[in-house]
Specification:
The protein is α/β, with parallel strands linked by helices. Helix content is about 40%, strand content about 20%. Strand 4, helix 6 and strand 5 form a beta-alpha-beta unit.
């Protein structure tokens, strides 16, 4: 669908109308709403924020400027995580960087018996994530923690051992922030910017997670195009991981790293 078709579909679904794209008749109110949405889009507002909802792995989630918009690449991260842990009984999972809750909610829905602890420094993002968890009836399976992830890894999480630690952390280098597309610049800076080289959060995650993982279990992370070798090098330097794999996104670009603790 084009963006205009997505907007039209959303407007008509919200008003309980039926969409016929070839012979479309809108009410005057729907026409005004359609033009308003198009005007907001021309100003650079993300389509997902305009619509207010977005799909992630077949789950409709509330989306607004409190959190980063889910990307298709992150579905690959979650699908691979599910494949690796779905056979475990009541797995414990730690997610670093909650956002609007898409990763935690998908894991709670698709991994039977799982319990997820998810950590984010943004109280606004956590509130949005809780709204989404309530909407999908998985609140009882997720513990939401407001804390800096490095602080959690070195203090708050040290009494628990996890079967999976998963993260899609901020990864945009500081110098590239000003060059991001206008719609991306409207997403929370906290969820995007990651220091001088974009590796700030990977350094902490890779350094502090090994003692929190059960033997034979997994650390999985998404990274930006071009960061694969640097992230893999950080993992190798720890000398505690094996079966290190880099997975590609739908465009064939390196996007996911998976490492098993030994």
């Amino acid at each position: 669908m084009t963006e205009d078709e997505l907007i039209l579909t959303h407007i008509l679904q919200c008003s309980r109308s039926e969409l016929y794209l070839r012979n479309l008749k809108l009410t005057d109110q729907q026409k005004r709403q359609f033009e308003s949405y198009k005007a907001r889009r021309k100003q650079g507002e993300p389509l997902q924020y305009i619509l207010g909802v977005w799909d992630f792995m077949g789950i409709e989630l509330k989306v607004d400027p409190r959190a980063l918009i889910p990307r298709p690449e992150t579905e690959i991260l979650v699908e691979e995580a599910i494949r690796r842990i779905k056979h475990l009984k009541n797995p414990k999972i730690l997610e670093l960087g909650t956002g609007l809750g898409n990763i935690a909610i998908a894991l709670a829905k698709f991994v039977a018996g799982s319990f997820i602890t998810t950590v984010d420094i943004s109280s606004e993002a956590l509130e949005l994530a809780k709204e989404n968890a309530l909407r999908h009836d998985v609140m009882q399976r997720i513990d939401f923690v407001r804390m800096d992830m490095a602080e959690y890894l070195t203090t708050g999480g040290t009494a628990i051992y996890y079967d999976l630690i998963i993260s899609n952390p901020p990864y945009i280098p500081l110098a590239q922030m000003k060059d991001l597309p206008l719609d991306v610049q409207q997403e929370p800076r906290l969820a995007l910017e990651a220091g001088r080289d974009g590796l700030k959060f990977y350094i902490d995650i890779i350094k502090y997670t090994p003692p929190l993982l059960r033997k034979g279990c997994y650390l999985m992370m998404e990274f930006s195009d071009g960061q694969g070798l640097a992230v893999k090098d950080l993992v190798l330097k720890q000398q505690v991981f094996s079966n290190i794999q880099i997975l590609q996104d739908l465009a064939g670009k390196d996007r996911i790293i998976c490492a098993q603790i030994f």
